[in-house]
Amino acid sequence: MENVNILYYFTIYGILGWCLEVAYAAVNTGTFVNRGFLNGPICPIYGIGAVLIIDFLTPFKNNLILLFVTSIFITSLLEYMTGFILEKIFNNKWWDYSKYPFNIKGYICLKFSLAWGIACVLVMRIIHPLVENFIEFIPQFIGAFFLLCTAVLFVIDSIATIDTVLKLNFRLKRIHEISDKIKQKSDTIGKNISDDTIELKRKYEYQSAEFRKKYDDFSEDIIELKETYKKLTDRRNPLHRRLIKAFPNIKSNKYFEALNELKRNAAKK
User: Fold this and answer.
1) 192: Cβ–Cβ under 8 A, 6 or more apart, which residues?
2) Collapsing DSSP states into helix, strand and coil, what is residue 93?
């Protein structure tokens, strides 16, 4: 496989994969969702998967059973590795098939593995010959310009997306820390109220200024923390919102409740 063809296949199938994801989301949600890890209209996992399938399975494209079985293995391995690596790097599980039977750690499941197998057979038998013919008709200069532009945009988009995910994780960390502080303050107030009430009951001094001042200070701290918490959870960052909508089953390994709060806010109109 020529290097230039690899770039063509990666780009074309990455774009087609994005279109497929958007159509799938539209059927399930009734609205447009910009699917994919990146912001632009390309899903790299589809591009990589297509290149691997074309490279390894072209010799077997006339053997339907072998093509189908091998496609399931390659696409499932790629999906598992992608999910595993993304989770280890960003501490977020971007999709989760745990609710489906015959899944492996939620990264892959039998239902979608079979679907990928069927899709790959269609690609090898029907779609790829059309793509090859399309590439042959592209003038060399126009093709080189197209690949250069898409490569530059892909790199920029990748950097921007990584920055977005890192900022999202930092935001989740801040929400988690503030939530913990609110809980600690509340627990402290509760314990002090309990202890002081018992003590005041003995002394019959429920209206003492010292009693009121102590809890007024605590209340001010909690009010300030709650205001900061509300600002962090209510802030409408469009890039964070897009990622959460693109991966509705995303789970954070460290900040589960904080992410759920952002997901609830993202679901609001």
Assistant:
1) 214, 215, 218
2) strand
Nearest-angstrom CA–CA distance, 100 and 32: 25
- Among all chains, which residue has been given the structure tokens 């904080």? 258
- The number of beta carbons lying within 10 Å of the beta carbon of residue 123 is 21
Residue spans per domain, the chain? 3-137, 161-246+256-267
Confirm if 150 and 4 have CB atoms less than 8 A apart: no
Residue 259, exposed/middle/buried by CB under 10 A (0-12, 13-18, 19+)?
buried
Secondary structure (3-state) at 149: helix
- State the DSSP code for 34: -
* Residue whose entry in the numeric block shows the structure tokens 């691997």: 52
Task: Check if the beta carbon of residue 39 is closer than 8 Å to that of residue 157.
Answer: yes
Condensed to tens digits (0 to 9), the pLDDT of residues 156-196 reads: 999 989 998 888 888 888 888 888 877 777 766 666 666 55
CA 99 to chain centre: 18
* C-alpha angle 233-32-34 in degrees, rounded to nearest 5: 65
Structure tokens at 166: 């890192």
Rounded to whole angstroms, how far apart are CA atoms 132 and 66?
22
Identity of the amino acid at 199: E
- The whole-angstrom separation of Cα 50 and Cα 35 is 18
Q: Is 71 exposed, middle or buried (0-12, 13-18, 19+ CB in 10 A)?
A: buried
Instruction: For residue 95, give the amino acid letter.
Output: W
| Distance between CA atoms of residues 179 and 165, nearest Å | 21
How confident is the model over 207-247, as pLDDT tens digits? Answer: 455 555 555 556 677 777 778 777 777 777 788 888 888 88
